[in-house]
Design goal:
This protein has about 130 residues and is an all-alpha fold. It has one domain: Leucine-rich Repeat Variant, CATH 1.25.10.10. It contains 8 helices and no strands. The protein is globular and about 40 Å long.
Amino acid sequence: MSSSAVRVIKDHSQSKEARIQAAFKLMNDGSDESVDALLWALFNDPSPIVRHECAFALGETAASRVVPELIRCMQSDSNIFVIHEAALALGTLGDLRAEEPLRALLSHPNPDIVESAEIALERLLG
């Protein structure tokens, strides 16, 4: 199942909806190949909405190895939706390596990002 979803998520000629559905299939599969494809799309898909869904999917995989990549995404993506979802995914994963990067977002100039960081920290620290 995952190899067809991997092909779809990496094919930018596919519709955004098809790539989003592939992200959900990869999330449910949870294999290393699936997680790798989600990480690839998180940094390479031209659509912020698709990257947002990939961040969500990565948070749901419970794969702690994605924490550094979600932190990097949160710090480097220019889109508010992607930053928001990467932050929430980090909170969901519950890995304390995310605490300081999330705290850094508390001084972000965008209040929606600050709110996302607050929610993520609540999830993380309970």
